[in-house]
Amino acid sequence: xxxxxxxxxxxxxxxxxxxxxxxxxxxxxxxxxxxxxxxxxxxxxxxxxxxxxxxxxxxxxxxxxxxxxxxxxxxxxxxxxxxxxxxxxxxxxxxxxxxxxxxxxxxxxxxxxxxxxxxxxxxxxxxxxxxxxxxxxxxxxxxxxxxxxxxxxxxxxxxxxxxxxxxxxxxxxxxxxxxxxxxxxxxxxxxxxxxxxxxxxxxxxxxxxxxxxxxxxxxxxxxxxxxxxxxxxxxxxxxxxxxxxxxxxxxxxxxxxxxxxxxxxxxxxxxxxxxxxxxxxxxxxxxxxxxxxxxxxxxxxxxxxxxxxxxxxxxxxxxxxxxxxxxxxxxxxxxxxxxxxxxxxxxxxxxxxxxxxxxxxxxxxxxxxxxxxxxxxxxxxxxxxxxxxxxxxxxxxxxxxxxxxxxxxxxxxxxxxxxxxxxxxxxxxxxxxxxxxxxxxxxxxxxxxxxxxxxxxxxxxxxxxxxxxxxxxxxxxxxxxxxxxxxxxxxxxxxxxxxxxxxxxxxxxxxxxxxxxxxxxxxxxxxxxxxxxxxxxxxxxxxxxxxxxxxxxxxxxxxxxxxxxxxxxxxxxxxxxxxxxxxxxxxxxxxxxxxxxxxxxxxxxxxxxxxxxxxxxxxxxxxxxxxxxxxxxxxxxxxxxxxxxxxxxxxxxxxxxxxxxxxxxxxxxxxxxxxxxxxxxxxxxxxxxxxxxxxxxxxxxxxxxxxxxxxxxxxxxxxxxxxxxxxxxxxxxxxxxxxxxxxxxxxxxxxxxxxxxxxxxxxxxxxxxxxxxxxxxxxxxxxxxxxxxxxxxxxxxxxx
Length: 800
Ligand SMILES: Nc1ncnc2c1ncn2[C@@H]1O[C@H](COP(=O)(O)OP(=O)(O)OP(=O)(O)O)[C@@H](O)[C@H]1O
Fold this sequence. Notes:
The chain has 6 domains: 27-230, Heat Shock Protein 90, CATH 3.30.565; 254-297 and 480-501, Helicase, Ruva Protein, domain 3 (Orthogonal Bundle); 314-387; 391-474, no CATH class; 517-661, 2-Layer Sandwich (Ribosomal Protein S5, domain 2); 702-799, Sandwich (Immunoglobulin-like). It contains 24 helices and 27 strands. Helix 4 runs antiparallel to helix 6 (124-136). 41% of the residues lie in helices and 20% in strands. Strand 3 and strand 4 form a beta hairpin. Bound molecules: adenosine-5'-triphosphate. Adenosine-5'-triphosphate binds at residues 53, 57-58, 61, 88, 90, 93, 101, 108-110, 119-126, 187. Its EC number is 5.6.2.2.
C-alpha cells in the first residue's frame, strides 16, 4: 500500500486537494460542536448553565444601572422540552442591540473593560440561545423595555451558525397592555430547551448561594417541583460602584505589552508607562526605565582611582594629556578633574566623560580657556587607562568582601583576576548586563576551581555577582523609543522584566467589588445556623496586570451536618461556581492546607478537612482566569492560589482557637462529671471516719477544678453571694439574682423590676484566688435564683 508519506513530493496536488476542503470555521459553528466548553454538555447541566448566564447578566445589568435587582426565573415542563423564562427589572436593551446580544457569539460590553463584572467574554447568553435552538429547534423570545412603561421591543430569533449573525423571525413592538414584563422596564427572555431536572440540587444551590453573596438582590425561582424566594436582606444596598482602570504593570504578558506598545500615542517609554498603566507616575516610570536600561544596555563598572600610596600621579596624567594650553590653566583644570574623580570615590566611563566635560565648561566660562573635544577625549583616554590599570586589584576587594574568610588569598586573587580579565574587551566602557556579569563570574569560578584546585560554591558566586553589580552604575543613554521596543521581542521582554522588578503601589480597588468580611460573615449567618463564624478579606493583588481580591469565610458546628468532608462553596465575582470542583484552584488550595494545625480532622494529612463546616472562597477580579469558557473553575494562577491560601488561613485562625477551647472545655466537663460521680461517696466516708459534718461537695469540686464558684448564703434577711475564683486568671463575671420580693441595699449592684420579679445584678472582676462578696437585703420568705454569665459552663460551679 502506498502511504501518504511515500507519495509526498511525487504527486502534485495533495496540498491543493486538502486545501479544497479547508475553510474558515465560524465561532458559532465551533461552539455548536463544542458546547461542553460552554457548560452545555447535558440536558441537566444545560438548564443550570442557561439560568446562570441569564441571572448573571440580569445582576450585572441592574447593578450597572443602579437598580436593586429583582429577578424572576421560571422553569416550565412541557411534553418534549422545558421552557425557561428569566426576567429582570434592569435598564433593558435597546432595539438595535437585542439581535446582536442574543444572536451573535462574542458580542458584549465587558470583554475590554478592566472592571469587575460577572460577565466577561460576551458568550454566555448567546451560547444559551445556541443550545436552545439546537435542542428544541425553536427561536428564543426576547422582550425588553428601556423606558418606564414605554413600548417594549419583542424579537424571536436564532443564530445563523454559518455566519454567527442573528436570524430574526419576528420583530414587533408591544404596548404596555400587550407586554409580558412584570416591571415597568427590564428584559424578559424565554427559551425552550431539551433538558431535565436531574441537576435540581445544583440549580437550587446556585440560586441560594447567589443570594448569600448578593444580599441586595431579590431572586425568585419557580420550577415544576418547588420554589425558592430569596428576599433582599433588610437594608442591603447596591454594592459599591466599580470603575474601569488601566492595567497594572505587574504580570502583563509579552503579547499584550507588544500590542499596547503598538497602540499607544506615546513616543517615549516613560510616557507610555505613565499613560497606559495604573499607579505609574514620573518616579515609578523613572525607576522602571533605569531597570530597563540596565537590562538593555548593561551597567558600567565604576573603578577606584589610584590611592595616595600608588605611584600614579593622576594630576600629571591629566596635564600630560593636555597640550598647547596655558600651564596655569592646565594645572587648574587637572586639579579640578582629579578632585571630582576623588570625590566620586569610584568612576565609570560615562561619569568620567561627564566630569571632564563639566570641568571644561567651568574653565571656559571662568578663564576663557577652551578645553575642546579633542583635549577632552585625550584626557578621558589617559585617565581611563589609569583607572583600569589594576582592575584585578579592585575586583579582589569586592570578591574578598563577598566570600567567606575561609577562602585563601591565592584563590580569591585568582578568581578576581579572571573576572577582571573579562572587562575591557570589545566594549572599552566596561559595560555588562547582570546576566553577562553572572556569566563572567561563573566562567571565572569554573576556571579557578579547575586550575587552582579550589571550591567556589553557588552562594559565593551569587554574592560576588551582587557585590560587583552594586558597584556598577546605570548608563546615561536614553532608553529605546516605543516603536523600537514594539518592533523587537527581546527588548520588549527586557521592559517586562524591568516592570516586574520595580515596586509599584497595589492597584486601586475601585474597579473591584469584594463582599467584605463583615457582610460575608452576615451572609453565612443568614444562610447557616452554626456555632462559629469567621471571615477575612485580603488586600488587592495583581495577576497578569489585573487586580484581584480574595475573601474567605468559615462556618462551623451548630446545625451544620457532619457529612465527612466539609462543604466548600466557591465564588468568582459574586457568582457561585457549581461544577468542576476538582479542577478548581480553590479546591486544590483548600485541600493542600494542613487542617490538623487548625484542629480539624484531615485523614492522611491532606484533602478536604472533615467536620460540620462550610468554607467559602470568593475571588473578585477584573479578569478571573477560568479554566474554560464555561467559567466553572478558577485556573491555577500562582498569585491567586497564594492569596486563596492566605485568606482561608486567616479565617481558619479563629476557628483554631475556637476548636481548641471547645475541646479543652469538653475534657474539663468529662473530668468534672467523673469527679462528681465519686465525690459525694467520698465525702460521706470522710465525714463518717472523721466524725465531722458533711463536706460541701460543690465547694470541693470548684477547688479541684479551679472553677469559679458562686454560692448563696442567707442570714437574717441578708443575702450574700460569694464569687470565689479558684482559677489563676481574673474572671469578669455577670451575676444576677432573680428575686420574687423587692430587695434592698444591694452592694454595688443595680436592681431592675420586671413583671413582679427583681433582677439584682453585679459585674465584679475577681482576680485569681480572690473572692468577691455581693450582698442585699430581702424578706425572709423570698425565693431567688442565680444566673451567671461571663464564665464558660465547664468552669463554673453554682451552689445555691
Ligand atoms: N438582561 C440584560 N440586560 C441588559 N443588558 C444585557 C442583559 N443581558 C446581556 N446584556 C448585555 O449583553 C452583553 C452580552 O451578554 P453575554 O451573556 O453574551 O456576555 P457577557 O455577560 O458580557 O460575558 P460572558 O460570556 O462571560 O457571560 C453583556 O455584556 C451586556 O452588555
